[in-house]
Amino acid sequence: MPATEEFLPATQTELCRWMVENAEGAALPIYPVGGRTSIGYGPAPAARGISLCTTGLARVIDYPARDMTITVEAGIRIDELAKVLESQRQRLPIDVPQLHRATLGGVAATNASGSRRFGLGTMRDYVIGVSAVDASGKPFKAGGRVVKNVAGYDLCKMLVGSLGTLAVVTQLTLKLRPVPERSEILWISFDQLDRVDAALARLVTSAARPVAIDLLDARAAAAIAAEAGIDLPVTCPVLCIGIEGTARETAWQAESLTSEIAASGPSETVVLRGDDVTKLWFALAEFQVPSDDPLTFRANLLPSRTVEFFREAERAGCALQAHAGNGIVVGHIPDSITSASAADELLARLRSLARKCRGNVTVVQCDESWKSALPMRGEYEPGWPLMRQLKRQVDPQNLLNPHQAF
Ligand SMILES: Cc1cc2nc3c(=O)[nH]c(=O)nc-3n(C[C@H](O)[C@H](O)[C@H](O)COP(=O)(O)OP(=O)(O)OC[C@H]3O[C@@H](n4cnc5c(N)ncnc54)[C@H](O)[C@@H]3O)c2cc1C
Q: Would you state the pLDDT for residue 146?
């Protein structure tokens, strides 16, 4: 990040006032930040500007627990929010890495989701109201404290996933879910990927309703089991199937899934419960956090083609976690790739395969010096021109996260 000063407002009014002064004065680029857990994602910022940090805005505004909604400021840390909700046996069911640092505003700005996206959705499904400030310092609201069914553009959904390029989110109203009585994970290892593909095909017609269907290669399985501190079979591909509900529902689901998948010839099935499950959900969310890997990518594909892509990336030595039910693959490339040109070559191979699987490959994180040489957003998407037009309309001075604009 080029030299930036930081501004940390204590109130939403102070934030608005400062943004008006900036837009009417120096008009410096503004980089909204929360917990900075994924500030390095995407293209590198070029222009000197101001980091606008939201962590000073962390109040709970309203929590009518019986309505299963909560209104909070955007700078609240995810683990702090979880504690508030736990007191009412409720939750925001989004798997977020580094949740002791990540903020709600950052999770919303990136539309973050993890393994349980399959059964429980993404951030976009839980945001029902937003308060935000546009680049000129004008505050606006969208949605509300109840689920609304109104005509017009759904600005809430537009801001979720907009990476801080359209407005700074200051406050969010969320709909919540009850904490389930039971959460269990089936850790199923296979001696070969063909058997995994057969098992995934069976799951499409399963009577059970898993909340997560993750596929891990041996490298990822080893890293995740180590992170969770649980002794599990990790020398071959693993399917991680998450089930949640009452004790009776999960017992029934575990039994029927085990018998359905038996036909695909798994090597071993381990059912995890209690604390082990909590540790494993945490480790599954943390896997996507780039550590010292040269590059981390994210592919979006047709779910039915996930194993085909996974096989190619595994052959290239990548450590892989696929949210197989949604056709999403997160991969860390091997340390043996030490230059931008070698990384570009591997990405080109993966992108062309992803294209055949109706998808795309984006670079989540890599060495800063590689960014200008790599297609960070992957292949051209037809929606980009309209997104650029929208950005120009909403932020004509291009002040908000100018490097993230499409
Ligand atoms: C493109 C992208 C995709 C990601 N996808 C996933 C995913 O699918 N699953 C997952 O678990 N994690 C994902 N992450 C990581 C996830 O974003 C982080 O785990 C976490 O959400 C970041 O929270 P943070 O407070 O640390 O945000 P930061 O790292 O501080 O900021 C992240 C992004 O959000 C913007 N931002 C932060 N706060 C605000 C605000 N109040 N208003 C407007 N913009 C703001 C920032 O400008 C920045 O672009 C993704 C990150 C990025 C950048």
A: 74
Distances (CA, A) of 120 to 58, 212, 225: 25, 9, 23
Whether 296 is in the pocket of ligand 1, judged by its Cβ within 6 Å, is no
Return the minimum-mean-pLDDT range out of 223-232, 239-248, 364-373. Answer: 364-373
Quick one: which of 240, 215, 242 has its CA closest to 313? Answer: 215
Ramachandran bin of 290, using left for φ above 0, alpha for ψ from -120 to 50, beta for the remaining angles: beta
Q: Which residue has the tokens 């929590």?
A: 63
* Per-residue pLDDT reduced to its tens digit, 341-391: 999 999 999 999 999 999 999 999 998 899 999 999 998 889 999 999 999
Is 54's C-beta closer than 6 angstroms to any atom of ligand 1?
yes
Strands 4-7, 49-53: pairing kind: parallel
Which domains does the chain possess?
Answer: 1-179+379-406 (3.30.465.10), 182-286 (3.30.70.2190), 295-375 (3.30.70.100)
Q: Is 135 in the pocket of ligand 1 (CB under 6 A)?
A: no
Question: Is the C-beta atom of 69 inside 6 A of ligand 1?
Answer: no
* Sheet with 30-33, side-by-side order of all strands: 4-7, 49-53, 30-33
Check pLDDT > 70 for residue 149: no
Per-residue pLDDT at 1:
54
pLDDT above 80 (res 34): yes
Which pLDDT tens digit goes with each residue over 283-301? 999 998 877 889 999 999 9
Q: What is the pLDDT of residue 291?
A: 76
Beta strands in 37-109 (DSSP E): 49-53, 60-62, 69-73, 90-91
Q: Sign of the CA dihedral 40, 45, 51, 55?
A: negative
91 near 179, Cβ under 8 Å?
A: yes
- DSSP annotation of 67 reads G
Taking each helix axis as running N to C, give the angle between helix 340-356 and helix 306-315, from 0 to 180 degrees, rounded to the nearest 10: 160
**Residue to mutate, 15, 38, 103, ligand 1, most ligand atoms under 8 Å from C-beta:** 38
Distance between terminal CA atoms of the chain? Answer: 18
The SS3 call for residue 183 is strand
- In whole angstroms, how far apart are CA 328 and each of 175, 236, 308, 322, 392? 25, 20, 12, 5, 30
Per the DSSP assignment, residues forming a β-bridge with 182 are 245
Best residue among 110, 130, 376 to mutate for probing ligand 1, ranked by most atoms within 8 Å of CB:
110
State the pLDDT at residue 167: 97
